[in-house]
Amino acid sequence: MLLGLLGVTIFGATLPMTHIALEGFSPLYITFARAAIAATAAGAALAVLRRPFPRAHLPALVGVGLGAVFGFPIFSSIAMQTIPASHGGVVLGLLPLLTSIFAALVDGERPGPLFWLCGFAGSLLIVAFSLRESAFHLGPGDFWLMLAALSASFSYVLSGKLARVMPGWEVIGWALALCAPLTFAGTILFAGSGIHGPGAAEYTALLYLGLMSMFGGFIFWNAGLALGGIARVAQIQLFQTFVTLAVSAVLLGEAIGPETLGFALAVAFVVWLGRKARIVRAIPAGSRA
User: Fold this and answer.
1) b/e sequence 27-39, b meaning 16+ C-beta within 10 Å
2) Is there a contact between 170 and 51 (Cβ–Cβ < 8 Å)?
3) Assuming Cys at both sites, which of 60, 239, 254, 267 could form a disulfide with 248, CB separation 3.0 to 4.6 Å?
4) φ and ψ at 220, to 5 degrees?
5) From residue 277, how far is each of 112, 117, 195, 268, 273 by CA, in Å?
6) Do the beta carbons of residue 125 and residue 247 sit within 8 Å?
7) 88 pLDDT exceeds 90?
8) C-alpha angle with apex 220: 110 to 78, nearest 5 degrees?
9) 132 Cβ neighbours under 8 A, 6+ residues apart
10) What is the Cα–Cα distance from 78 to 85, expressed in whole angstroms?
């Protein structure tokens, strides 16, 4: 849970940093450039440590790449053009429930009734908060964020499964390495039209998105998913909303109302209660317990 919380804290700054980066770069350029930066760091680590390529896990690594390297970055970047980062952070509060659903479908985890009750309760709190903040109006940005959440949650489950058989940093590292030809090609292709006079703040934000949001955060997150169970640790993501709100207030000056604390405390209680819920993982036919 602590490893997951570290990952969530790093991920929580992603939307505000994307907002800052958009002042100097286009959404497509951000998508490819952040992945190229992350691939450079991951490739260097894999090369220095001489890690063998896990050929048997190629399909799952491709899935991680599609969701984490391309899906979430492009969808969230498009969304951040039209909605505040703080609002986006609230919408992404649905990530824990989506991740738990994918964990049940893909990984065979079987949470009990209490877990699902807590998951839906936490999601309802997040949705209620989101609607309150947006005056009960949902726009195109919310649609793009839902696609981003689906992409991220699917890649989280695949990453968590792989992190049981290899270090978590290798999972995202190899996913980035596999996507590197496309990400470097895209960075070069969109450099002409995607760079709009960025300054130090925009370059710093882009570096954060590459080194932390796309690589560093996954080191802790994948390890937490593998050790604590995907569905259970995914509930920590409910706190990501409030990390995003705090970072948005500090970096972007976005206002946070007093009701935020009440929602945060309610979500914290739901996460605490969900930790006590029973979760089992189905054993595939033909394998030994």
Assistant:
1) bbbbbbbbbbbbb
2) yes
3) 254
4) -75, -40
5) 7, 10, 48, 15, 7
6) no
7) no
8) 85
9) 259
10) 12
pLDDT digits (tens, 9 = 90+) for 117-161: 777 787 777 777 766 665 556 677 778 888 888 898 889 889 888
User: Average of pLDDT values for 28-32?
Assistant: 93
The whole-number average pLDDT for the span 75-82 is 85
Q: How many angstroms separate the Cα of 243 from the Cα of each of 25, 29, 61, 86, 162?
A: 24, 26, 28, 9, 27
Contacts 24+ apart (CB under 8 A), 137-140: 139/82, 139/83, 140/82
Most confident of 26-40, 103-117, 133-147: 26-40
209 vs 83, more confident: 209
The overall pTM is greater than 0.85: no
Tokens (6 digits) for 152: 């991220």
Mean pLDDT computed over 37-42: 96
CB 92 within 8 A of CB 145: yes
Contacting residues for 78 by C-beta, under 8 A, at least 6 apart? 27, 141, 144
Kindly report the number of other CB atoms within 10 A of residue 280's CB atom: 11
Q: Where on the phi/psi map is residue 50: left (φ > 0), alpha (ψ -120 to 50), or beta? A: left
Give every CB contact of residue 165 below 8 A, 6+ residues apart in sequence. Answer: 57
Please state, in angstroms and rounded to a whole number, the distance separating the CA atoms of residues 4 and 230. Answer: 10
Strand partners, 25: 195
Across 43-57, 148-162, 239-253, which has the greatest mean pLDDT?
A: 43-57
When pLDDT is cut at 50, 70 and 90, the band that residue 53 belongs to is very high
User: What backbone torsions phi and psi does residue 261 show, to the nearest 5 degrees?
Assistant: -60, -40
